Amino acid sequence: MDFNGLSIDQAPPISAPLRFFLTAPLFAILAGFLVLFSDPEILRTRFALESIAVTHTITIGFFGFVMLGALTQMLPVLAGVKIPNIEKVAKYTHLSLVFGLVFFILAFIDDNKLFYLLAMVGLGVGFLTLISFIALSMQDVKNFTPTVKNMAISLFFAFTSVLLGLMLLGEYVSQEIGSIHMFLANVHSVWGIFGFAGILLIGVAFQVLPMFYVAPSFKEFCLSKVAKIISAGLMLWLILNLFIPSYALVAKIWIATFFWAFATTAWLKLNKRKRKVSDITIWYWRVASISLSTGSFFWIFDEYFDSQYTVLVGLFFGLGFLLSIMMGMLYKIIPFLVWFHLNGAGYMSIPTMNEMIDKRLSKLQFFMFLFSFGGFVFSFFMPQFLWFFALSFIISMVILEYNIVTCALLYAKIKKTKPDFDMSAFK
Amino acid sequence: MNSIKDFLTQDHRRCDEIFALMEEKANANLEDAKEITQEFVTDMEHHFQMEEKVMFAEFEQKTGMTQGPTAMMRHEHEQMRGLMAQLLSSLEEGNKDKFMGTSETLMILLQQHNMKEEQMLYPMAQQHLSAEAERIVDMMQSIVVE
After folding, report:
1. Do A3 and B68 touch (CB under 8 A)?
2. How is residue B33 annotated by DSSP?
3. Chain B interface, Cβ < 8 Å to A
């Protein structure tokens, strides 16, 4: 029998998740600058090269980095498995992804063949290696809880979405955009957002709403069926698009309905939470619930307007839903990890989680973000104001980065001192 | 028959509820939270000792594993005892920020500890000790906390 799950060594070194978490806001800041210096009219079209650059700076640079970083941390704790060589794997895949993404952004700004190729190599190696290592470790899972099942399903969508992304990049390298390019790009984005990110975050919600807020557990139906139903919807959506595109809306309604139902359920669970004390992580969950509901409706609505509003849908799903939840979770996870690793190493006098991040700063960060998010939606109709909200978004992300760096520096500072207890006997 | 897993899991939920009440009271007024904090600490200690003195001991004897999962759980109990001592000292000092920060840390540590026990250790214990489950639950119920 494998007892790894119960060992302190099981937790990966703090460097594995932290390097991803520290990088994510930097890419969000970069995305803000890209928006600031782009022509707002161009950003309203989804397939413009500049739009692709901005979108991926957020989707890969923030969402991808946070989700992969979180998986390296959560999988050992939630599923009791060890990702082999995680310290090295995290280090090199992180480097590869940063390298790939930087060239990705440069490539789409400059429409440069060599840069497209370098992006393809960096992102391909980084994503596929890390996803494979995580997937391999999942073979050892003895007890598939609903959250772990969702993780496994989301990894499948991550993998396919990455492969499709690489194919699409390949077409830019050869500068031969095939006739099904748009179709593949649609599958890539819908599976990436709903399959990888959406299903993963639903799984995480199953675990963290009861755990962090003492909210009632999700119902058995929700726990065991929702991820499968959404996956079936995503498959159906693909098949219908391939063979009878005029009916693809049915699958869209299917997917949107279940995401909307999840958003509503999460909202109600939070209302019923026993832990009444409120903090910005709860506010972030609230924003995410509202945005996910609104986004789901807009996604359907968009169908009747010849996809004119796709960028707006992307804003609600991307910034309102995904970015909000991820930021909320970072505020919980990072201070805890710092405390956990220091305490495990024998340090007893550690600042409390609330002392690590200045609450006023995290509140300011939240409101700046909310203001920018609302502003981006507004700028969709009034593009001349976009630069202003790009600036406030940048400020919000700078504060987020500052808050995370503060925790990391505190960890490094305390780690340099001598521990109160020698824990080597426990190793 | 009350299984070891169900019995201890229910006790986790009970402690969670007291925790939530304690935090709510402390957030409103730290002075008012003294009694319930004491209740929380006492109940947690009771739970720890039910495990350490009865269930873990039986498990270790049956399986011969003293350095396995139970050693890790004991270590985490110690971590939580440390945090609970900090809760009490911040009450003495009247330091609300420290109290809320400590309770936040304790909550996450406690929840991931519970998860490991409920999803891994308790099912294992149930498997190895099922024949004696009733006796063990009885012993846990009648334990005197030191």
Report:
1. yes
2. G
3. 16-17, 19-21, 23-24, 27, 65, 68-69, 72-73, 75, 79, 82, 86, 97-98, 100-102, 104-105, 107-109, 111-112, 115-116, 119-121, 123-124
pLDDT digits (tens, 9 = 90+) for A170-229: 999 998 888 889 999 999 999 999 999 999 999 999 988 988 888 988 999 999 999 999
Is 80 exceeded by the pLDDT of residue A421?
no
State the Cα–Cα distance between residues A67 and B6, nearest whole angstrom: 33
pLDDT per residue over B23-65, tens digit each?
A: 999 999 999 999 999 999 999 999 999 999 999 999 999 888 8
* Residue A11 in contact with partner chain B when CB distance is under 8 A: no
Contacts of A277 in chain B (CB under 8 A): 23-24, 27, 100
Confidence at residue A10, expressed as pLDDT on a 0 to 100 scale:
64
Judge: A339–B105 Cβ closer than 8 Å, yes or no. yes
Q: Is A421 on the interface with B (CB under 8 A)?
A: no
Predicted TM-score (pTM) of this structure: 0.90
Q: Note whether B120 contacts A143, CB cutoff 8 Å.
A: yes
Instruction: DSSP letter for A64, please.
Output: I
Q: A276 touching B, CB under 8 A?
A: yes
Q: What is the pLDDT of residue B143?
A: 87
Average pLDDT of every residue of chain A: 91
Q: Is the dihedral of CA A222, A223, A228, A230 positive or negative?
A: positive
Q: What is chain B's Cα-based Rg?
A: 16
Backbone angles phi, psi at A37, to 5 degrees: -100, 5
The distance from CA B52 to its chain's CA centroid, rounded to whole angstroms, is 10
Write the CATH number of the domain with boundaries B4-141: 1.20.120
At residue B5, φ and ψ (nearest 5 deg) are -60, -50
Which of A241, A175, A157, A182 shows the shortest CA–CA distance to A52? A182
Q: Provide the ipTM.
A: 0.80
Asked if the model's pLDDT at residue A425 lies above 60, the reply is no
What tens digit of pLDDT does each residue of A93-131 get? 999 999 999 999 999 999 999 999 999 999 999 999 999
Q: How far apart are CA A5 and CA B79, in angstroms?
A: 18
Amino acid making up residue A253: I
Distance from CA of B135 to the nearest CA of A (A): 26
Domains of chain B, by residue range, sit at: 4-141
Say whether B75 and A8 touch across the interface (CB within 8 A): yes
Q: Choose among B71, B112, B70: nearest CA to A78.
A: B112
**A39 interface with B at CB cutoff 8 Å:** no
| pLDDT score of A6 | 47
Please choose, from the candidates A129, A140, A205, A130, the residue with its C-alpha nearest in 3D space to the C-alpha of residue A10: A140
Q: Are A352 and B104 inside 8 Å of each other by CB?
A: yes
Q: Which residues of B touch A79 (CB under 8 A)?
A: none
